[in-house]
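tokens incoming
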């Protein structure tokens, strides 16, 4: 029975699960965040098409968490590939799964809340286009936590 478990490559399974969670959770959060900002931006652009670029910049900001999740997934898959034909042992696979969680979970929530701040910042653009940078700064404050999350995940992956 033990040989059968080893043959399944459970270390790889855990690592692939981590890669999937890092990308899926962060990607879902980014999709929701971009959607929230896009809904707010559509009304602004409908009223004044000259504000499209400003709105698009703010709408795009919550997408970065999905990119960060992709980076973590790529790093984990690279570890699996580097392990070769023998694959990862179970503890290494579990460690990589755990390393994916900070980026996946924090990425999901920060992208959603960043979308909400971006939507409010689009309101700034609607009234005063010249104050767009203020809206970007407010939106980037939420981004800071996604940056912390990717750094934690990278540090954890580096220990495997």
């Amino acid at each position: 029975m033990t040989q059968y478990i080893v043959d399944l490559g459970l270390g790889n399974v855990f690592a692939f699960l981590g890669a999937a969670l890092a990308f899926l959770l962060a990607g879902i959060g980014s999709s929701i965040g971009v959607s929230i900002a896009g809904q707010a931006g559509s009304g602004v652009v409908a009223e004044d098409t000259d504000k499209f670029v400003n709105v698009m910049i703010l709408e795009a900001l919550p997408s970065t968490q999905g990119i960060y999740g992709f980076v973590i997934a790529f790093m984990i898959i690279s570890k699996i590939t580097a392990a070769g034909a023998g694959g990862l042992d179970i503890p290494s696979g579990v460690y990589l799964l755990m390393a994916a969680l900070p980026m996946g979970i924090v990425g999901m929530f920060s992208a959603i809340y960043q979308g909400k701040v971006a939507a409010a910042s689009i309101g700034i653009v609607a009234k005063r286009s010249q104050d767009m940078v203020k809206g970007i700064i407010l939106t980037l404050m939420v981004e800071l936590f996604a940056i912390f999350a990717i750094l934690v995940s990278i540090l954890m992956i580096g220990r495997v």
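note: The chain has one domain: 2-158.
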